[in-house]
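User: Continuing from earlier, I have the next pair ready.

Assistant: Great, send them over.

User: Here they are, in order.

Assistant: Folding the first of the pair now:
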Amino acid sequence: MRFGFLLKRGKPEARELAETLARMLAARGATSVALPEDAAVIPGATVVTPDAFGAAIDVLVVLGGDGTFLYGASLAADHGVPIFGVNLGSLGFITPYARAEAAGALEEACRGGLAIQERIRLSVSIRRARGGPPLKAPSAVNDAVLTQRSIARLLDLEARLDGAEITTYKADGLIVATPTGSTAYSLAAGGPLLTPDLEAMVLTPICPHTLTNRPLVFRPDSKLSIRNASGGTVTLTVDGQWGEELESDDWIDVERAARPLRLYQAPRGFFGILREKLSWGSRRVDVG
């Protein structure tokens, strides 16, 4: 098997752990693959460019936080490569393995003993009011977000589902999230939590002017279209990794991506992660 390594920048523990894991894999006959900036700390690694990375590996090992994981998914998910995430960041909703668990779990992955979970991603494209071919954005693991970046003012965003008008939102922005992304920006904006195996998407308004505008959950085989009706520019951000400006009357179309995200299942399960990361079930007692 070919194991790709992606390391969080500025994390010495990521470099140390990568070296340990690469030596362990080499002893079991596996090969290691790395990007040029990571190769120096991975013994015997084959060096490839980001464009060739996904096709050169069978498993991607991410050592970092959720941001590093999302970057890794942009390189590997279109190739069907499963991702093994080790959390060296602060939250770690989608990098579920702790550093102490990494070696044992990766050995189990080598033996084919770890379950792989599939989760939907978003396909996002832009239709310009001035015409021309649609602009394809990278597929999203978490979300596609429309916001106003320069001036704090309400946006007008017309939303349609399979051609049927939903409404024109007056809000600070809109978030279109997957179940995986329901624990990210959508949650902070008041969106619902969706279990990661659910086949659905959620549209969450950010600070809507009309308080009855609530998050909307819909089928993933639907097509959501949103028009910038604001008269000024709006910023589209995909997974916090890619951005593009929308002019007035530009549209975005959001659908289910053709290939899912594949990742090694969390050892504690989804609700175990919620109990740990969101402190569910804990009770704080103040002693006066």
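And the other member of the pair:
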Amino acid sequence: MSVLRRKTDRPRGIVLGPGAGGPGGGPVHHLRFEPPPELQAYVEHLWLVRWSLPAGQVLEAATLPHPVIHWTVEGGQSELVGVTRGRFVRHLEGSGRVVAVKFRPAGFCAYTRTSLHTLTDRRIPASQLLGAKVNLALRGLAALPDEAAVARLSGALGTLEVRPDAAAIEAGRIVAHVAMDREVTSVDALARHAGLSVLTLQRLFRAKVGVSPKWVIQRYRLHEALERIATSSHSGAPRLAELAYALGFTDQAHFCRVFKRFVGVAPMAYAARCRGRAPGRALLAADA
């Protein structure tokens, strides 16, 4: 069984609950691993979250997911999780563990010819698209130690046929550009960069990413807003009008409405939460 290298870069946001100290301590452990070389074109990383909470304690964990597909294994349940357009919220209690693959944007298209918009906001049994043999490959995973379980999942993915998809590769490159270039704030500008019409870009994203280019742009700019607010030193929060303009929103009111819709609280309330997190709640994060 191959040994996977742990990722050491800082994830965007925080997915750990209060009091968690990473792999070495705390009630919640979060590990991320580089995929093996043969999977790197399609997989961002593999990840594991394990928790063990005292009786009666409930941890609310919330994330603002990326435009990607996840393959998650929890106990005997193996599922494909489509792009979640809203917040993803889960209440953790007792003990448990999730082992998962985080595909790159459009990366899952190498394993299916299904249009990814059919998975958006859905969870389906992994065997439905990956075939029944994945269940055999994962047999006994729940009893394995953490790193061995991640390696088993990686190995199971490695047994599947890969069929590179040129259109998906193009879509993935465009999404990567949105994530890296913080100046991209409109679909028209993104279409010009990609050398495509807006309609062609929309169709490409629907089939190969699962969501619209407008959603992808807004999601990455919201990730940036979370980071800026969490790290701001200006009176506990950045100047919201300046932040709204920088992220491409029409005005501060528009930004605040969108932020509250997806994050669940207004920007100033989120800033206060970052300064002093309430017990039993996890900061909203970008993704695992």
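Worth noting for the second one:
The chain has two domains: 22-158, 166-275. Residues 213-231 form the longest helix (19 residues).
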